[in-house]
Write a structure and sequence with these properties.
about 220 residues, mainly alpha, Arc Repressor Mutant, subunit A, 2 domains
Length: about 220
């Protein structure tokens, strides 16, 4: 019996789907959508292309599922649970620290999903980018609403809530990309970077006013 056919019969459907997603994630993260074929994904997974199309109707559907994959693994749900608890406690510093930590950790633990989105941008793959935006907005909106509420309560300084969130997550994302993708080195470890980013977010970069300056 053909080896690929034998292997395709060994895994339950859910396990096979997960295997195909892991294999496709590896290829799309290294070669992008245009540079990847379902034939090579099937070969790497030890199955026929027919097995792929049994789970996903076409290459685009497989690609969309790869973009959604972090949500299926529970990674995003775990972040939501932690952030919702911090939001309920009005813990501004704890929430910002957690966002910075998880963004950096997403590059350290498995940067393949980040590479897929980066490839989508470089290829101009608008379908993939729209899929990513649709998945990202439900994460962004409750944090935006929280920051706006805390501003109205006087706990955070006035300003565009989106700019604050982008400053928090953007600094962490740039640091993760610079160190993980481009090989830049920092003289600080990730924990120290998180502490520094949080301090800058909460207190800015200007020196604290002295009593003499405050009186002038």
């Amino acid at each position: 019996m053909n080896e690929a056919r034998t292997q395709s019969q060994r895994l339950p459907a859910s396990d096979r789907r997960r295997q195909l997603l892991e294999t496709a994630l590896d290829f799309f993260s290294r070669k992008g959508f245009e540079g990847t074929t379902t034939k090579e994904i099937a070969a790497a997974a030890g199955v026929t292309e027919a097995i792929i199309f049994r789970h996903f109707p076409n290459k685009q559907a497989l690609y969309n599922a790869v973009i959604d994959y972090p949500h299926e693994t529970g990674e995003v749900a775990a972040c939501f649970e932690e952030w919702n608890a911090l939001i309920a406690a009005n813990d501004d510093a704890g929430l910002f620290r957690s966002i910075i930590h998880h963004v950096i950790a997403s590059y350290r633990n498995d940067a393949r999903s980040k590479r897929v989105i980066l490839f989508a941008a470089l290829e101009g793959h608008e379908v993939g980018l729209e899929q990513h935006r649709q998945r990202s907005m439900p994460i962004f909106e409750p944090i935006f609403n929280y920051v706006a509420r805390r501003q109205s309560e006087g706990a955070l300084r006035p300003g565009n809530p989106a700019a604050i969130i982008l400053a928090v997550a953007g600094a962490a994302a740039h640091y993760g990309m610079a160190t993980e993708f481009f090989g830049f080195c920092s003289n600080l470890n990730d924990t120290e970077i998180i502490d520094n980013f949080l301090d800058i977010i909460l207190h800015g970069v200007s020196p604290a006013s002295t009593p003499e300056k405050a009186d002038q």
